[in-house]
Amino acid sequence: MPRKAARLIGVSLLGVAGVLVVAAAAGLSFRAYRQHLAVDILAIRSPRGVQEGEFVDIGGIKQWIQIRGEDRDNPVLLFVHGGPGGSTLPISSGWRPWEKHFTVVQWDQRGTGRTYGAAGDTLAPTMTLERMAQDGVELVEYLRTHLHKDKIVLVGHSWGSFLGIHIVKQRPDLFYAYVGTGQVVGRVTFEKQFEITIAHLQALAQSAGNSEAQAELAPIVARPLISPQNRLVADKWSKALGLPSIESVQLAGPVPPPFMPDFSLLDWYNWRKGMAFSAKYLRGREGPMFKRDVASLGLAFPMPVIFIEGDADYNTPSGPAEQLFNQITAPHKEFVWVRGGSHFIPFDRPDEFLAELVTHVRPFARDRPV
After folding, report:
1. pLDDT above 50 (res 150)
2. Residue closest to 246 by CA, chosen among 297, 317, 331
3. 111: alpha, beta or left, given left = phi > 0 and alpha = psi -120 to 50?
4. Whether pLDDT at 94 is above 80
5. Where does residue 115 rank: exposed (0-12), middle (13-18), buried (19+ CB within 10 A)?
6. Given the DSSP bridges, would you call strands 333-338 and 305-310 parallel, antiparallel or unpaired?
7. How confident is the model at residue 366 (pLDDT cuts 50, 70, 90)?
8. Does the pLDDT of residue 368 top 60, yes or no?
9. CB 357: neighbour CB atoms within 10 A?
10. How far apart are CA 151 and CA 147, in angstroms?
């Protein structure tokens, strides 16, 4: 290559690199500006309020929690996130109104988000349902002391509903009420999910006149077992036929996730790494949600139990949760339907979810300070 041409290419590459650097700097500056605005939007200004984020010693490791609320006298609500590994810290600005009625605690579970970032892959041998349920109990004990409460309310979403039942079953004396949403029962939940997925794919194939898809889906429709081969067929046609992704949820709230304050690019890296890490040990056919069943823990609950379920939740269909609900006994129990609600009611319809919490849950949380 002639020297002149080489120099021109070098200059061009430097120019492109310079443009990319300028664009990246501009993007980071804009993000920093939006985060600065978000600090003001989300600030707790009440003299009785609480706004904390810290690592706490739980289960022999540092685990991250966030505590926010307008009034320390309000009942404490621990939100046990789904995923597994799905920290709710960057997607919860829609919960700002919740903080007028509850002191809301978010917890990056073992293997999740900032907790994963602090310990990394060394957590692998401890990624068990039993260890994480004990983590939850230890966290609640800490919250009782730190916030001077007798008991708390636990809200479990998706994987967090499965873990949450294990937590409240282990120490029912610590809880005013258990609230499940996107409630996972066990294997039956995912068998029903797969059945609904195949039915949706068949309808899409028929609508599109796709005979190849109909032919491959027909034997699965007749017997929708979650085998590896059937899963491959479902994944293939989910992409080809444009089945909406679970990740297409429209989050509510004043602050979009990329602009959540005090959430760095490193936090995003650990958020994504934690999702993959947790899935490796807790999801799939060998994971606890598929191999266990919450009914095996016993159907008697000594605290109120409230299920808040969307009738359009196709990720954790509500049928198995309703069957479980009908079997359990509790001092008080309610099954609340959210019409048109998806798997992500706390995030895409947070005001409606709050209304149900205030109506059906908060009356049971009469705090007696400790």
Report:
1. yes
2. 317
3. left
4. yes
5. buried
6. parallel
7. confident
8. no
9. 24
10. 10
